[in-house]
Structure formats: structure tokens, C-alpha cells
Recover the amino acids of this structure.
């Protein structure tokens, strides 16, 4: 009798183990199926082929259903975002187109006033300066909007740094000479050094730095040199100008920020912001070292070009 009871208990134990194993396997299969379905949902969302009607709560747990709702909502938001971006793109194009002709006419009439000697010199110069400032502001706003909305896409590729610097030096030499400043662009030191960058927009970024350096320097001048590191190529723009106080150094890269000490000068406070964004979109960055009254050194870091990158 005792042996029979032991056998029965043993059999019951075996059955319990089998049942437990079956439950574990069944649960594993259910979870695996759910994970596969969720994976398929996410993949279809990434591919743009997701259809909410293919999934219902009878097939999935509530968490899977919520995931389907989330993906469907995200797709709607993505479509709306794309539509808004297209509207902004059109608006920017319209602003650029509609303002181009009036500004060109203003500048043309200013030149005619000069040639015909109408009005006094001070008024003519003021009109010309304001027209150029308005043109610069509109162009800067258009560039900024394109960067922020993703309309403007960088195309970084392998480029020689020396030719890039030589072009920048030629472009700003006359401006420095007008102020009686030196502009030393040591492009020869960059021979044989390559970096990965978009030439057009990186030239814009470097130009902003050189222009600012000349603008805020009264004696001495500006030096541009290159330093090569393992992962980055650094282009330094060093000036002997007014310098930047430590408490302002984090603010100057913000949109429309103007320091109190240069508030009366030419500029709208967009150049450094554009420079930072142009570098950021190319996996680069900008660094500043300065002290009030001791000049400033702005350093542009561009990724090293490896192979044909």
C-alpha cells in the first residue's frame, strides 16, 4: 500500500512537472509571438507600410495594442511635420524672392543718387548703409530658417584645407586693410591636411569668424592657422580685439545676442549662431578662448577625412 502511494505521488509529481514545463513553453511561445508581432509593427512603421487595421486586441495583449496606437499617431504626426516643413520651405522661398527685387531697387536708386549728386553725402550714406543692413538681415534670417527646419542639408566630403583658407584670406584682405589691420592666413601650414566638410557652408562659417574678428579689432590684426589632431582638424581665428567677458561667452552663440559693449556697432547677432549650426550639422563644433580686453580665439573643429570620406 505504501509503495502504491509512493508510485502515485511520483506519477503526480511527474505530471506536475510536465504541466509546469508545458505552461512555461506555452508562455514562452506566446511571448515570442507577441515580440515578433511587435517587431513587425515597428519594422512596418520604419518602412512606412504600417496599417493599424491589421492589428486588433483579440490577437494582442493591451500593451501591443497601445504600441499600435502609438505608431499610428506617430505616423500622423510625421505627415503633419512634413507638411509644415514644406509650408515653411515655400514661405522662406517666397520671402527671399519677394524681398530681392525691392532691396535691389533701393540699392540701385542709392547709387543713382550718388552719381547725380542728389541729397547730401550723409543722407546718401545712411540710406545705403540701412539698405545693406536690411539685405544682410533678410539673407541671414533665410539661412537660419533653412538650417533650423532641416531644409538646408550639408554635403560634407574630403577637401584640402589649404585652398579653403587661401580663398578666405583673399576674400577678407581688403576689409582688414581698410581698418589698418593685418590679416595673416597661414594656409601654407595646412598643405597636405584634409578634412571632411561642405566647402560652401563651411566657408560661410569661417567668414563669419574672420568678419567678426576684423569688426571688433581696432589695433593689431587677425591670424588664421590650422592644427591637425587625430580626429579633428582645428582652424583657429585669433584676434587682438576687445575680447569677450567670461560671463558672456556662453551667450554669444545664441540667436540675436548682442553684447552691450558692441550694441551700437554693425551686426544683428546671427553670425556666430549660424557658424555653430553649420559646424554641428557636419559633426564638428566650435570653441572659444577669450578674456575682456585681451582678444579672442575662435576654434572651428572639422572631422578628419579618412580615405574618400
Amino acid at each position: 500500500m505504501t509503495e502504491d502511494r509512493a508510485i502515485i505521488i511520483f506519477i503526480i509529481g511527474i505530471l506536475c512537472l510536465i504541466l509546469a514545463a508545458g505552461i512555461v513553453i506555452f508562455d514562452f511561445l506566446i511571448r515570442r509571438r507577441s515580440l515578433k508581432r511587435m517587431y513587425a509593427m515597428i519594422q512596418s512603421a520604419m518602412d512606412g507600410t504600417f496599417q493599424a487595421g491589421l492589428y486588433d486586441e483579440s490577437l494582442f495583449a493591451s500593451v501591443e495594442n497601445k504600441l499600435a496606437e502609438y505608431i499610428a499617431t506617430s505616423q500622423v504626426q510625421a505627415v503633419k511635420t512634413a507638411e509644415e516643413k514644406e509650408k515653411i520651405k515655400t514661405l522662406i522661398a517666397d520671402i527671399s524672392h519677394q524681398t530681392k527685387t525691392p532691396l535691389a531697387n533701393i540699392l540701385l536708386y542709392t547709387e543713382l543718387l550718388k552719381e547725380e549728386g542728389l541729397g547730401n553725402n550723409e543722407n546718401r550714406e545712411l540710406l545705403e548703409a540701412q539698405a545693406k543692413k536690411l539685405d544682410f538681415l533678410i539673407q541671414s534670417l533665410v539661412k537660419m530658417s533653412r538650417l533650423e527646419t532641416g531644409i538646408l542639408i550639408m554635403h560634407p566630403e574630403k577637401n584640402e584645407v589649404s585652398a579653403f583658407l587661401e580663398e578666405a584670406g583673399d576674400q577678407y584682405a581688403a576689409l582688414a586693410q581698410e581698418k589698418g589691420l593685418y590679416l595673416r592666413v597661414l594656409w601654407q601650414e595646412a598643405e597636405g591636411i584634409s578634412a571632411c566638410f561642405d566647402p560652401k557652408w563651411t566657408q560661410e562659417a569661417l567668414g563669419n569668424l574672420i568678419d567678426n574678428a576684423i569688426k571688433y579689432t581696432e589695433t593689431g590684426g587677425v591670424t588664421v592657422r590650422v592644427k591637425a589632431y587625430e580626429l579633428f582638424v582645428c582652424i583657429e581665428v585669433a584676434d587682438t580685439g576687445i575680447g569677450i567677458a567670461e560671463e558672456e561667452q556662453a551667450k554669444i552663440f545664441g540667436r540675436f545676442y548682442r553684447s552691450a559693449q558692441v550694441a551700437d556697432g554693425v551686426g544683428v547677432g546671427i553670425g556666430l549662431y549660424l557658424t555653430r549650426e553649420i559646424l554641428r550639422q557636419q559633426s564638428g563644433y566650435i570653441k572659444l578662448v577669450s578674456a575682456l580686453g585681451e582678444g579672442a580665439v575662435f576654434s572651428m573643429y572639422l572631422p578628419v577625412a579618412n580615405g574618400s570620406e
User: Anything to note?
Assistant: The chain is about 55% helix and 15% strand. The beta strands are 157-160, 182-185, 194-197, 221-228, 232-239, 285-290, 296-303. Residues 109 and 128 are 9 Å apart (CA to CA). The helical segments are 2-47, 62-116, 121-149, 161-178, 199-215, 271-280.
